[in-house]
Every structure is written in structure tokens, then in C-alpha cells.
Specification:
Helix 1 packs across helix 3. The protein has about 100 residues and is an all-alpha fold. The longest helix has about 35 residues. The protein is flat, with a radius of gyration of 21 Å.
């Protein structure tokens, strides 16, 4: 049985489409990082909120003996969210140096 032939430029078109999607994703990530920086570094209330979150979540144990697996996962998710904000702020600040 003969395999169907792809048009010559289909692979290039596929690669170009993938690269365009990747560029959009990176641009959206950059915009998110800038927004996090504005909300949690440039805004006094946002900075206070982030400080409270860091103190409550990052400085306390993730899992306590009475936690279920689900509760432990939620707690780690909160910490991951806060770490992501902190990383975004650091990225924006390093790009502006």
C-alpha cells in the first residue's frame, strides 16, 4: 500500500506554526511576569500581601501529621504559587538591570 505524500512545505509550515505558538507563549509569560512585578513589588499593598503569604506559607511546614494527602497537595500548591510570583519578580528585576 502506498503512503500518502505530504506537500513539500508542510513540515516547514508545521515548524513555523510551532515556533509562532512558542513565541506567543513566551510573550504571554513575559507579560505575566511584568504584571506580578507591578502587583507585588511596585504596589505597597501587594508587597505587604506577598510578605504575609511568604511568612504564612513558606516559613511553615508543608505537611503536618494530621494532613491528608489532598491537604498536603493543596499546601504545596500554595507554596508553589508564591514561589512562582517571587521568581517572576526576580526575572523582571534581572532584565531591568
Amino acid at each position: 500500500m502506498e503512503q500518502p505524500q505530504l506537500p513539500e512545505n508542510s513540515i516547514e509550515a508545521f515548524i513555523d506554526e510551532g515556533l509562532a505558538q512558542q513565541k506567543k507563549t513566551l510573550e504571554a509569560k513575559d507579560q505575566s511576569n511584568i504584571l506580578y512585578h507591578k502587583l507585588f513589588k511596585q504596589n505597597e499593598d501587594g508587597a505587604r500581601l506577598l510578605a504575609v503569604w511568604k511568612e504564612k506559607a513558606l516559613l511553615n511546614p508543608s505537611v503536618l501529621p494530621h494532613f491528608t494527602q489532598f491537604e498536603a497537595g493543596l499546601e504545596e500548591g500554595r507554596k508553589c504559587f508564591i514561589r512562582d510570583i517571587m521568581a517572576a519578580i526576580a526575572i523582571v528585576e534581572s532584565e531591568n538591570e
